[in-house]
């Protein structure tokens, strides 16, 4: 999979940019706040996932403009294809000229993996970031996972609302059985997919981290299931989650929130058996995050047969030459977009460079 051409209009600070990128490495360079990350972000949105920077789509439109328009011509599944996004208060998508009901229908049509400095939060911060990483990766691989996750989160919201109302309406207590059964079924599907994915992730990331550390350190990743059951069997997870929901019901009513389920799960990331979050150096944590994202790309290729587009936002310059060389060699055969302030710090031959200033190519 690779992009043949990209055009961006009125997206964040970008007035209009049109490029025909290389099928290998593309360097997007310029000073800070000139639009480099905006270009990377515009590509990411074609995955059908939300922005990795903004919660509101309206923030993506250039100041005093009514809408933004991004278009790509790309090659995947053996043929040239097109996709277009119109963004006003929300996003509107077209693929090969056909209107899509939702931009989320682009999930599974165009694959990309993004790594930016903010992804250090995968290692340094709380579990919400690691769950988001897992869910985003799985949504790209399995569009049905995205639907199942949305169904689980909606049911969780309904149950939490019920927990708040029970103190005023005791007759609602008996309805918890119905919600618990639904939540256990939907939650078991989420947990089952996550556990299977983390097994692949640990294998791939371990090999990549071994290369990044020149064989000096070992990376391991485990799924931390807060119900205390580690199984890939859906029925077993469902039964156990239902049991735990019933056991913790009184506590949930008191706290007015559901205390067990995949919304509380985490990843345990270790270097040589020691927590990377608690004891890893800055360099080790950065290498861990890179290994996670690069292994995500490997799994997409393994499961779909398509090479994802790789988006590296302002990360290469902070790595030593050995790590830079390893990453670039590992990305051989993939289309890569790299943002940086000074392209001379990267030891590259071939590919294309694009200089951005004030949201325009110069």
Explain what you see.
This protein is of the alpha/beta class. 40% of the residues lie in helices and 23% in strands. The strands form three sheets. A six-stranded antiparallel beta sheet has the order 2-1-4-5-6-7, with helices on one face. The longest helix has 37 residues. The protein is globular and about 70 Å long. 42% of the residues are buried.
Attribute tags:
single chain, 362 residues, alpha/beta, Rossmann fold, Glutathione S-transferase Yfyf (Class Pi), Chain A, domain 2, six-stranded antiparallel β-sheet, six-stranded mixed β-sheet, 15 strands
**What is the CATH fold-level name of the largest domain?**
Glutathione S-transferase Yfyf (Class Pi), Chain A, domain 2
Class by alpha and beta content:
alpha/beta
Helicity, in percent?
A: 40-55%
> What does the largest sheet look like?
6 strands, antiparallel
How many domains comprise the coordinates?
2
Quote the beta fraction: 15-25%
The parts where pLDDT drops under 50 for at least 5 residues are none
User: What is the tally of beta strands?
Assistant: 15
Q: What is the H/E string?
A: EEEHEEEEEHHHHEHHEEHHEHEEE
Strand order, main sheet: write it out: 2-1-4-5-6-7
Number of helices: 10
In the CATH hierarchy, what is the class of the largest domain? Mainly Alpha
Tell me the distance between the termini.
28 Å
What gyration radius follows from the Cα positions, in whole Å?
22 Å
* CATH homology superfamily name of the largest domain: RecF/RecN/SMC, N-terminal domain
Shape: globular
| CATH second-level architecture of the largest domain | Up-down Bundle
Look at the structure and give the mean pLDDT: 91
